[in-house]
Amino acid sequence: MKRSEIRLSGSGGQGIILAGIILAEAALLEGKNAVQSQSYGPEARGGASKSEVIISSESVDYPKVTDPSLVLALTSEAYTKYARGCSAGVVVLVDDSVNTLLDEGVLSLPIIRTAREELGRPIVANIVALGAINGVAKLVAPESLEKAVLNRVPKGTEDLNRKALHLGYKLIAESNS
Amino acid sequence: MLLLQGNEACVEGALAAGLDFYAGYPITPSTEIAELLAAKLPRQGGSFIQMEDEISAMAAVIGASLTGAKTMTATSGPGFSLKQENLGYAMYTETPCVVVNVQRGGPSTGQPTMPSQGDVMQARWGTHGDHPVIALSPSSVEETFWLTIRAMNLSEKYRTPVILLMDEVVGHMRERIEIPQDIGEVINRKKPTGDPKDYLPFKPDADLVPPMASFGEGYRFHVTGLTHDESGFPSGSNKITGELIQRLHDKIDRNYADIVQVETEHMEDAEIAVVAYGSTARSASRAVKQAREQGIKAGLFRPITIWPFPAQELKSCLAGLKHVVVAEMNLGQLILEVERQVAGAVSVGGIMRADGELITPAQILAYLQEVK
Amino acid sequence: MSGEDKYLRSNRLPHILCPGCGHGIVMGAVVRAIEKAGLDQNKTVIVSGIGCSSRLPGYMDFDTLHTTHGRALAFATGIKFAKPELNVIVVTGDGDALAIGGNHFIHSCRRNIDITTIVLNNRIYGMTSGQFSPMTPQGHLATTAPFGNVDRDFDICELSKAAGATYVARSTAYHVAQLTDLVSKAIMNKGFSVVEAVSQCPTYYGRRNKMGSAVDMMNDQKASGVTAAAAAKLTPEQMVGKYVIGELHKAEAPEYTARYHSIVDSLKDKEMK
Question: Contact B176/A62, CB-based, under 8 Å?
Answer without folding.
Answer: no
